[in-house]
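INTERNAL AUDIT FORM
Audit reference: QA-55
Scope: verify that the stored structure record matches its stored sequence.
Auditor: D.O.
Record contents follow.
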Amino acid sequence: MLKRLSTSIIITMWVVVGIGVVKAQDAHKFQVEIPFPFVLQDRGLPAGKYRLERIDPAKPNLLMIRNDDAHLVRLILTQRVAKEAVSSTTYLLFRRREEKLYLFQVWISGALNGIQIPLPDNNDTKVRRDDGTSVVRLNAKAP
């Protein structure tokens, strides 16, 4: 009886640990419908459904973005950015420049750190919040 109980406890612990690992992996994957064309670094991408994920936990600055409709895949090197409070939702920030929207930052729910995509030909990566059209926020959801 004691052997059965200890075996059950061990199996339960492994299941709980396994679920935690799967949820941690899912936390780095999400999808979003982007209703407008946008620029990712120096490439224009069409509106559509996209999946974003970190493909290697050992390299958190490498992000993969995949368009489900056009089967486009891009790998992006990003920079880490931080804010004072934990992000309450997963969202993307786009920066408007010369009538184009550039994917600029990605924030994941529950994290203090987000990732920032360097904008082309721009050494000033600080987001201007002095007018309402500088930044566009788009919420995302888990897959």
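Auditor finding: record pair retrieved intact. The helical segments are 2-26.
Action required: none
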